[in-house]
C-alpha cells in the first residue's frame, strides 16, 4: 500500500533518526520532511511505533497516511511537487 510520511520535528538529531527509519523501510524522500513508498500494514505499524518512540510528542508531529493506488492517482501535484535534488525521475516513475 502506498504511504506518505510527513513530519515536523524540532530537533535535528530526532529528525535525522526518523528520516533514517523511513529510508530503512524503503521509503523515498520526496521533500525534506516527506517520504513516499510502499509498506504493508505491519510495516506501517512498526514505523509508527518507532517514530513515536523517537519524537517528543509535546512539540513534534509525524503523519503516516496510507493511500490506495486509486486514490493516489487522484492526487494533484502542483508546482515543484518533488524536490528535484532529492528525487530522481526513476523514483517518480515508480509512482506514476
Give me some keywords for this one.
40% helix, Alpha-Beta Plaits, four-stranded antiparallel sheet, alpha+beta
Protein architecture, described:
It is a single chain. The protein is α+β, with helices and mostly antiparallel strands and 96 residues long. The chain has one domain: Alpha-Beta Plaits, CATH 3.30.70.240. Helices cover 40% and strands 24% of the residues. It is built from four helices and four strands, in the order βαββαβαα. It has a four-stranded antiparallel beta sheet. Strand 2 and strand 3 form a beta hairpin. It is globular and about 35 Å long.
Overall strand count: 4
Distance between the termini: 14 Å
β-strand amount = 15-25%
Strand order of the largest sheet: 2-3-1-4
What fold name goes in the CATH topology slot? Alpha-Beta Plaits
Structural class: alpha+beta
* Radius of gyration from CA coordinates: 13 Å
Overall mean pLDDT stands at: 88
Query: Quick one: overall form?
Result: globular
Shape-level CATH architecture? 2-Layer Sandwich
Helix content: 25-40%
Topology of this protein?
Elements: E1 2-8, H1 12-24, E2 28-31, E3 34-38, H2 41-54, E4 61-67, H3 69-72, H4 89-95
Helix pairs in contact: 1-2
In brief, what are we looking at here?
The protein is of the alpha+beta class and 96 residues long. Helices cover 40% and strands 24% of the residues.
Amino acid at each position: 500500500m502506498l504511504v506518505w510520511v510527513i513530519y515536523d520535528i524540532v530537533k535535528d538529531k530526532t529528525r535525522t533518526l526518523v528520516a533514517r527509519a523511513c529510508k530503512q523501510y524503503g521509503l523515498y524522500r520526496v521533500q525534506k520532511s516527506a517520504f513516499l513508498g510502499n509498506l504493508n500494514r505491519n510495516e506501517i505499524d512498526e514505523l509508527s511505533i518507532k517514530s513515536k518512540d523517537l519524537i517528543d510528542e509535546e512539540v513534534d508531529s509525524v503523519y503516516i497516511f496510507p493511500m490506495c493506488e486509486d486514490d493516489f492517482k487522484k492526487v494533484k501535484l502542483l508546482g515543484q511537487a518533488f524536490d528535484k535534488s532529492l528525487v530522481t525521475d526513476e523514483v517518480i516513475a515508480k509512482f506514476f
